[in-house]
UniProtKB/TrEMBL annotation:
Annotated keywords: DNA damage, DNA repair, Hydrolase
InterPro entries with a match to the protein in the record: Formyl_transferase-like_C_sf, MPG, MPG_sf
GO molecular function, one term: DNA binding
Enzyme Commission identifier(s): 3.2.2.-
Homology family: Belongs to the DNA glycosylase MPG family.
Top-level taxon in the UniProt lineage: Bacteria
Enzyme class: hydrolase
Any one GO biological process: base-excision repair
Pfam families on file: Pur_DNA_glyco
Protein name, entry field: Putative 3-methyladenine DNA glycosylase
NCBIfam families named among the record's database cross-references: 3mg
Length: 202
DNA sequence: CCATTGATCGCCT
DNA sequence: GGCGATCAATGGG
């Protein structure tokens, strides 16, 4: 299977976030292959963005991987869940949070890891658990190594831009349209209504 | 050492 | 739509 070139992560984080929609994330963890097509992402713009973990510019034990160059992942724990970002740029602490994927490989394994058969990967804490990602093992991992790869995947028909979720206390940053989803795909946070034809893929 | 704080989830009404 | 569980990191005493 062909791996995706990672150059698109090197410069503009908002463009990289949109480009990631439809790409397939595949993990090889505990001898199991699991994966899915990205349906929902959010961009976090470091020093200019009050909602970002790196807004202060201070390096802490929690956020230090955000200061690595693109091609690494940043995994953090909150409320007992792991969440995964792709780090972007070479000189700024910016990244893209992966919030939803559409299951494509190893679905039975993901059902077992999640302990249920519905809503496997429609949230940032859910998809990391389904894919086997944990902060203590995988924070700072390099993309396209032995453990986690990105492949070309599918192409979204329509991309919708919305405010981000769960940052209601972040003043003006609450209004930024930094959340991008595949329009009509049901594998996104708080999905309501009916899925569109082909789940919104071309 | 203890209290508070989240880029959340899942079950309840 | 509300709320409790849950946990690592952080900051104050």
């Amino acid at each position: 299977m062909k791996l995706l070139e990672l150059d698109f992560l090197s410069d503009d984080t908002l463009s990289a976030a949109k480009y990631l929609l439809g790409k397939e994330i595949v993990t090889y963890i505990d001898g199991e292959e699991t994966g899915g097509y990205i349906t929902e992402v959010e961009a976090y713009l470091g020093l200019e963005d009050k909602a970002a973990h790196t807004f202060s510019g201070k390096v802490t034990k929690k956020n230090d991987m955000m200061f690595e160059p693109y091609g690494h992942i940043y995994v953090y724990t909150m409320h007992g869940h792991s969440c995964m970002n792709f780090v972007t740029t070479v000189d700024r602490p910016e990244g893209v949070l992966i919030r939803g994927i559409e299951p494509s490989r190893g679905i039975e394994v993901m059902e077992k890891r999640r302990g249920r058969t519905d809503h496997l990967t429609d949230g940032p804490g859910k998809l990391t658990k389904a894919l086997g990602i944990q902060r203590n093992l995988h924070n700072g991992l390099k993309i396209n190594g032995d453990t986690l790869c990105i492949m070309p995947g599918k192409t979204p028909d329509t991309i919708a831009e919305t405010p981000r979720i769960g940052i209601d206390n972040k003043e003006e940053a609450v209004d930024y349209l930094y959340r991008f989803i595949v329009s009509g795909n049901p594998h996104v946070s708080k999905f309501k209504g009916k899925p569109v034809a082909d789940n919104g893929w071309k």
